[in-house]
């Protein structure tokens, strides 16, 4: 047992630089989901580009995810409770990322007719309706560890899966260009020309185990469809850690999955297409790299908690996006290590089957491990950074802590704001009329508090006012009446007209409601004043200034101030609006009393003094009439002034009510019991809520980091931080100054509140604060890495123990037989140590680390490379074992035992033809001897016609007119023959062999099995990595050669003198005594034979008829024999016209070259020649030559082709001279 094509010396490899590849992660089943959920959590937890954090997976443009599962009831939060996992919602797969749908099994299994309607499924589906019923399968409960159900689910959902993968690949491609700025911000450098697809699943059973091959083929086809230079990798978890499940079932599923994987990785595709209408190219292999993982590793470490494996895998995948140097080194070494994956592991068969008869297993598989020695200082500083950002947010926006009253306004500050901004200035109203003592009043009973805002509404252009206009108008009208020469007895009439005119000027007319009177002007003033107040540069600006006030301001202060303003305005008991409304009623009452009782009394007096009444007769004095007229004027003026004051007070109340409405009103109560406002308060609340959301978001980020700090798993080895990671954030006046400095480019809170309403704006603000917070973090001591400090605090024994645990748990997590001759040498190992200061760490601890390597792994200190990680306080140890064969897996014998047991009760494979899958295990020499004997017996029986190929690809033999099946050729190779079948075939074969007596028969059988060797199992030509080419002679080739040699030995013993001539004759007559076995070209593994191999041949029935074969040979024996060339001279080339070169000497057996007009064509098989004879392209006169003929002959002269020219119905053949198409 050895490794084939080993180079003679160490290979010199040029280093390859590999950047980050945009990656599509496909999670198959529960295992894939759990690994990818953890990966998503790490992406959200990480700090990118120095101070950036991704808030949702959609914001990380380098990745796309697909979650494929049949089990809709799978817990999608990796076992954590949604209530306690702060990242549950963010890491959960979205509906757009999931393909989790029900499977309508009855569509395929209601009856065989139903199944056959779905031809692509019927070709492989192993579950019959009876079997499904017997097994009690319920697809609504998931794949249930039945691999074929998962594959059926893949076929059923194929259009959805295909389109989803196309969409995801398209998004990755678009993200490369569309998010260049975001990638730069995250500190990520990508290779835009490549995409990586990572598929994760379990071999144990169910969704992943049944669909992983189809998913790999499809992913490759999608990349090919888009002309993308990418790679598809599989991370495949073995059944070792699935203790809670049916152990034998998961082991059996694992073995079946490995059989299929091994077959496909040898270049034997499992699928032709999923949909006949597709034009997708199916690659010969489903994966570029396959990483096999289990719950134990090559250093004998083992975990009983499968979650440890998920954590380790997600760590490995995550580091591909983190530290550029470390990740680039991983990728570069992986490319170089591919040299080990193109080799094969060979198993020599017993020498009696040939000195170099062997089986080959591809070394296509790898394993990996990763462990971390972590002080977690980066996480702790991240917590501190986030808390500092919180403090700056609170300080800048004036958000009080829940336990503190905060900065609240006083009543005096409230009243000053009302006075300064709204001119709500109180004063005592004392201008009451003298008649108060003579009338009965209910409201205006004395002095009261009035507000300047009402008087402001009486102001008009300039310094003028409505009250002044009224007084001036009254004076003018009454002066005109007195000086106009009107008779005194007409004064009352004129006064009534003046009253009507003044009423129109003040109150308007019932006829013309649009007239601009004083009442309308007051309303206009109110509307104009409201517009002025709520303009952005007025009241909003003043309130926002309160937000920005360092000493007496802030968000909480301003919200409280607005609420106090509203209360002061609207309070039923003490509010200004109710007071103004009461004042309006007072003024109205005074105006009405003056107009009704007082003015009526004055009119009576005027009537008496200016008319012919008693008073006028008695007085006889004009002076008294003028006095009364003055009193009428004063009363009329006072009534009008009180009326407009009534209107002004009413409109002032309305103005303040509208201002209060603009400030906001409580609309509802939120889920926390807090009032929800509209208006400006709502605007402030939106800002406050946005700030609160940011604060909660930071709290969530802190909780995420705290949770990650507390998480424990086998590959995380904590290292106690000496100091410097637990400092509390700064809190004090300087914090607001930091925030102001961070926000200085934006302006005040007004601009910031606008940014708070958009996600982009929030990210911009947080970015500014984070930058500032990073600047304020206390610097580490120069030259001191917390990792080195923490290690230095340990004793040498404690240091060695940490390194021992680290290296043991970082070893590749696969149980392998490292001493079984599988060629797993130290060169196949990669070991990277990622630290902050690689040179210093290597100088200090490199030797000790090398001494702590686990024994028995084959790795040496020379494989350890120290790489810059860019992260302080942490050591990452990554290992990879590249290129081993599946037989090196130590659990395979256990899996095989479970496989044989379970296969008796349930279909284990994703195909009904299970014999096509190769065994991934290495058997003992005695077992291989038996397999070889059985295969030799099978091949012998096929050649002699004892075993015949049936339509279902299986071979059968007859006993007493009954047919017995032995399986197809793959089954014979994998499992051999059972004892009874072996004996029956041997008996029949012995009878046939006993009848063989003549040299002609032996020569014929020699030619038959020589044709098997050279044609049916025609070997490939392979070139190894050092450029040496050789024929890849496989196991069937060697068995055919063994049979050929046995008959050659018997022939030479029986007829030594004529053996050579008889062999030549037998080769030329082969197709006359043997016939092709239809369909037998499909009996081989594609990776083992040349693409131009032919079908096997079986002896014709007449072969065993006495004398038949001898008669066949006689014409050939009578043919003239060309004299050999003279000694020392080469045999002349066969004639074929001038300039015709002889065909090459290594033409295939019984293949003919054709000469047409001096040009050689071919070679062609006899079957092809027969087609060209039928079409007239070849006639009896056509010149043909094959290996073994001394010269070119016309086709009619070649005896073994005589049957081609038997006359047939139809017209004469076309003229010769047109060459057939080139042979395929």
From TrEMBL:
It holds the Pfam family GYF_2. Residues 1152-1201 form the GYF domain. InterPro entries: GYF_2 (IPR025640), Tubulin-like (IPR025904), Tubulin/FtsZ_GTPase_sf (IPR036525). This is GYF domain-containing protein.
